[in-house]
Amino acid sequence: MRSLAIGTSLFTIVLAACMSGGGHASAPAEPAEPAEPAEPAEPAEPSVVASAGQSAPSSGAPLAVTDVICERAVRCGTIGRSQLRECREGPGRSRLTLVWGHGERFDHDRLVAAGRLTREATDPQACLTFLASAPCRPAPGSFPKGCGYTGPAPVLVAAVAPGGVCERWDECVDGFCTAQTACQGVCVARSPLDGPCDADLICREDAYCWEGRCRPRADVGAECRGHWQWCKDGLICDGYWPGNDNDHYHSPERPGRCSPGKLLGEECVPPSTASGEVCVAPLYCDWGSDRPVCREPLPAGAECRWLDACAEGLTCAGLVLGGRHHAGARYAARKAGRCAPSLDAGDPCDPAAFITGCPAAMVCDAQRKVCRSTGHAGDPCASSWLTRPPPDDAPTRTEGCFSGHRCDPVTRRCKPQLAMGARCEPVPFGVEDSPCFLGECDVRTRRCTPRCPKK
Question: How far apart are CA 153 and CA 437, in angstroms?
Answer without folding.
Answer: 22
